[in-house]
Amino acid sequence: MTERVDRSGLKVDAGLAAFIEEQVLPPIGQDAASFWEGFAQLAAVHARRNRELLDKRDLLQAQIDAWHVDRAGRGIDQDEYQAFLRRIGYLVPEPDAFTISTRDVDPEIANMAGPQLVVPVLNARFLLNAANARWGSLYDAWYGTDALDAAPAQGPGYDPARGAAVIAAGRAFLDEAVPLKAGSWADLESPEFLELADDRQYLGETDKGLLFSNNGLAIEVQFDATSAVGSTDRAGISDIVLEAALTTIVDLEDSIAAVDAQDKLAAYANWLGVIRGDLTDTFEKNGRALTRTLAADKAVTLQTGEKAVLPGRSLLFVRNVGHLMTNPAILLPDGGEIPEGILDAVVTSAISTQDVKGLTKYGNSRKGSIYIVKPKMHGPEECAFANDLFDAVEDLLGLAHHTIKVGVMDEERRTSANLAACIREVRERIVFINTGFLDRTGDEIHTSMHAGPMIRKAAIKGSTWIQAYEKRNVAIGLRHGLSGVAQIGKGMWAAPDMMRDMMEQKIAHPRTGANTAWVPSPTAATLHAMHYHQVDVFGLREGLAASDIPGLDQLLQVPLADGTNWSEEEVRDELDNNAQGLLGYVVRWIDQGVGCSKVPDIDDVGLMEDRATLRISSQHMANWLLHGVCSEEQVMDALKRMAAKVDAQNAADPHYEPMAGDWDTSMAFQAACDLVFKGAAQPSGYTEPLLHEWRLRKKAA
């Protein structure tokens, strides 16, 4: 039974109350009684408005469902469809010309282009790794992955042949990024003879070597002729270290399983630790206990002889949850649970206020800002609500308005269709927009669930609407002044073991004009950083700014499989693919409380999956089931066969609980079934309500 304490009418989990009153409020000079009184008033106003917005979502969806049912078999006429969407308020008028006016934005967001990590807040080791991924060894990234097209390393120790290939690739990279006045880096015999083609690229010296700059990113060439690598190098170069993950999103949303006060407290404690600068994690590796801490800043002696420091850590955003879910960590005076997004906004901002006030070991924002990514907002009304909520939080904490900056995830259809209006509602605090295939496709399917069966999941990536969606995101962002102020981002590369493929494909992201894109690991961040040396994003944007914005006729083309008759084998393959991906993630979420991990796909390729993969898979299966493409029996057959496959894929995990055969007792399997068979009825197709219900049952058991 949860122990609760009364705080101004709020029934607060005792552990959470103690954490806030003992660790969060005293350093920032907040009186606990005044804080709780203000929190209670804030919650009373905003919880009611939050509920009204969710009711609006349900009303719009019911109207869209009815429209499609009434026109079954008639196809979708875009003029008629868009007129209907405007009439019900799903589409709003395009705003008059405006430019965002966000101030006090750190350069990593406003003026630099580079990789972005997303890391689950509940895993302290991963969190520290991500925060420290501001700098990464290119030699290590090449040596230990398939990114380098050379024979893999042989033996447990250092392989000189592999090392030579890495050194040669490093020289080629330097020739492109920091060319010499004459000759090649491969011919360099000593740093004393180094002359650059452009002297402005030289920044200064570090304690390990020389620092250069290209396209706004730093490159550290380290020299140590006594090291294993440097001793084989004619110039004594021991490593090339790249400025890599400029920013990291510390995630309280899709990559964690947080369903109660215990989970939320663990999440907030890690956020406090990383902000305060004292977070550590001790773990065992190769039989030795290792302790990880945050990296210090990098000291530089400039050409002038002056001393300077470069940030040693990634600039941190915190991703709060969206507007949908509530959490039992706090009960409102009427007995209902607090909307979790309101709880996150207050607590993560209160923690971050220690950074704003300069009370932390290293400091996160040098501009005194708090960066919150807000996901899963539907349209401009919900963005306006987030803006007002952050105003209220700033008042509660005694912060100037717009201290809290917002990143808007463009991952819901109503937001995509009204993106300019959404940006306008947060124009004084917006620092980020991005795109995401999985959630956006899940909402695409659910919004048009009753329009007809969708094309196969893999084919959706090439459909008209998603091409328009990706282009509109960049073009609308540029039109309204995000360049030089905010990030325009692209989605995740999900396969951490397929770095060669990533290097071939992910360069497409900076070429769109996006100044950041998500990567699954610090190693991937180091490799992806090379793309931003190849592409001058801000220079590229000058030619993109005048580009036409794809219209709604393209964006709102529903990916229907009109007239398609799939074979029984094609249906089985599609169901198997969806069921395997669904089960492989659900079983860890429900049974172990793991919200993000490398999950083998149906072909045994490890993919970094979070909750968004459930939304697209469950919605696609629910859509085919609704329209008779498959039967309940076929879906259940796929789920049971894929449960056995997932069991086999996890056979080496001592904590794993098999599903196959335990159909009535495996909560993970039952949760997966619910996600499909109840999928059409879930709010916006979200998986959170069912996942939370089953996870709470599992924890109780």
TrEMBL record:
Binding-site positions, acetyl-CoA: V118, R125, F126, S255, R292, P520
Q: Subcellular localization, per the record? A: Cytoplasm
Domain (Malate synthase TIM barrel) spans 316-542
What is the name listed in the Swiss-Prot or TrEMBL entry for this protein?
A: Malate synthase G
Question: Does this UniProt record's set of keywords contain Ribosomal protein?
Answer: no
Family, according to the entry, reads as follows: Belongs to the malate synthase family. GlcB subfamily.
Q: Name one GO biological process term.
A: glyoxylate cycle
Q: What does this protein do?
A: Involved in the glycolate utilization. Catalyzes the condensation and subsequent hydrolysis of acetyl-coenzyme A (acetyl-CoA) and glyoxylate to form malate and CoA.
Keyword Transferase set for record = yes
**Primary enzyme class:** transferase
Q: Could you give the subunit structure recorded for this chain? A: Monomer.
- Which InterPro entries does its entry note? Malate_synth_C_sf, Malate_synth_sf, Malate_synthase_TIM, Malate_synthG, MS_C, MS_N, MS_N_TIM-barrel_dom, MSG_insertion
Q: What is its EC number?
A: 2.3.3.9
Cofactor(s) needed: Mg(2+)
Where along this sequence does the record place binding of glyoxylate? R319, E411, G436, F437, L438, D439
Enumerate the NCBIfam families for this protein: malate_syn_G (TIGR01345), PRK02999.1 (NF002825)
* Single GO molecular function: magnesium ion binding
| The organism of origin for this protein | Novosphingobium silvae
- Give the record's pathway: Carbohydrate metabolism; glyoxylate cycle; (S)-malate from isocitrate: step 2/2
User: Which reactions appear under catalytic activity for this entry?
Assistant: glyoxylate + acetyl-CoA + H2O = (S)-malate + CoA + H(+)
Please provide an example of a Pfam family that matches this protein in its UniProt record.
MSG_insertion
The UniProt record lists the Malate synthase N-terminal domain at 18-71
Q: Which residues carry this modification: Cysteine sulfenic acid (-SOH)?
A: C596
Its keywords, alphabetically, are: Acyltransferase, Cytoplasm, Glyoxylate bypass, Magnesium, Metal-binding, Oxidation, Transferase, Tricarboxylic acid cycle
Catalytic residues, per the record, are R319, D610
